[in-house]
Amino acid sequence: MDLDSINLSGLTDQSVSAEVIQPGDVLEVTMINDYAKLTTTTTPVRVADDGTIVVPLVGRVGIGGMEIEQAERAVNAESINRGVFRNPCITVTMKQCRTCRVTVAGAVNKPGIHELSRGSTSLMAALLAAEGLSKEAGTEVEIRHTDSRQARQVGQPPYSPQMATGPNAPAVPASYEQPEAMPEVIRVDLTAATSGVVRLPELRDGDVVNVAKRNLLPIYVLGLVTKPGSFPYPFNQEIRVLDALSLAGGCSNPLAEDILLIRRLPGAKEPVRIAISLQAVKNGQDNLTLAPGDTVSVERTAATTIADLIQTFFRFGVGANVSWF
Question: What does each C-alpha distance from 45 to 28, 30, 60, 62, 119 come to in angstroms?
């Protein structure tokens, strides 16, 4: 699959809005504490993992998943319900969104740890942060969720504190160690993902994105060459017929002229055969670009057969005659 034909913009998915409050965000809570003088106090608070914040005088309030205006109404309502204020004036503002740190590895131009802003945690954003796919990239991407709160052993029930306490709790030796939770692994095919066939997961803090490399088929150079065999197809450059002959040590017969390029196309029953001449290749006319899996065969002709016979005669016949004297 040619990655140039894949529209990576299709990897963009609906991410969490920057206005939605999430665990790890830092907010500022401002309240008027003296209506006579209209003096205010502003307190920074961090959203806990359970989506709550501790508001001065009011206490703990759950606002996770709310937008800013909803959070303000929730805090004001709780301050009235708890008898703290009768007519509160409390505002909530976003001071700092928690960023999502993901590791992008494999066939990308800039592997490493990258920070994604809120509202931009799609697979496309992660690949852009890594400066895009490298030339050796394949179509398979592995997303590994390393958040231990979301992962557990396959087939095991979720952990509950009641499981480890109480008179009926199972006895566990002191030296026994609980197995670590298995991280969730999601494999994405870029071809299907960009066409909208599958829905992409939202990336989470600590995720690892690994872009697999392509397994390119080698090229084969056969026939009248010095070193026939298979040769790896390079990822970072194109390879032409003349390059393939050079890899095979050149033609082994001085009269070699006919070259057959054999290429197998996906879904085709028979391979495509292209006849070219060595002279045209050297002139640059038929120095075709090869594809992975192509075979370049330097064909035997009547002229090359005669040249081989003459070469064999001089190697063995003349050599044997000389030895008689």
Answer: 6, 11, 11, 13, 21
Pairing of the two strands 208-213 and 100-106 = parallel
Q: In the prediction, which pLDDT does 159 show?
A: 36
Q: Which pairs count as long-range contacts for 179-184, CB under 8 Å and 24+ apart, including other chains?
A: 179/153, 181/148, 181/151, 181/152, 181/153, 182/151, 182/152, 182/153, 182/154, 183/144, 183/145, 183/146, 183/151, 184/144, 184/145, 184/150, 184/151
Mean pLDDT of 2-13: 59
Render pLDDT for 246-278 as a digit per residue (tens, 0 to 9). 999 999 998 999 999 999 988 888 999 999 999
DSSP string for 224-253: SBSS-EEEPPPSSS--BHHHHHHHTTSBSS
Into how many domains does the chain fold?
A: 3
Last residue of one domain, picked from the residues 96, 114, 140: 96
Q: How far apart are CA 31 and CA 89, in angstroms?
A: 6
Q: Per DSSP, what are the bridge partners of residue 275?
A: 260
pLDDT at residue 29 tops 90: yes
Confidence of residue 122 (pLDDT cuts 50, 70, 90): confident
Domain of 72 in residue numbering reads as 26-96
User: What per-residue confidence (pLDDT) applies to 176?
Assistant: 47
Please check whether residues 142 and 252 belong to one and the same domain.
no
H helical segments located in 184-312: 190-194, 241-247, 278-282, 302-312
What pLDDT, on a 0 to 100 scale, did the predictor assign at position 14? 53
- Asked whether residue 111 is domain-assigned, the answer is yes
Q: Do both 92 and 104 map to the same domain?
A: no
Looking at the chain, the whole-number percentage of residues with pLDDT higher than 70 is 77
Give percent of the chain with pLDDT exceeding 90. Answer: 41
Cβ burial 60-89 (10 Å sphere, 16+ → b, else e)? ebebbebeeeebbebbbebbeeeebbeebe
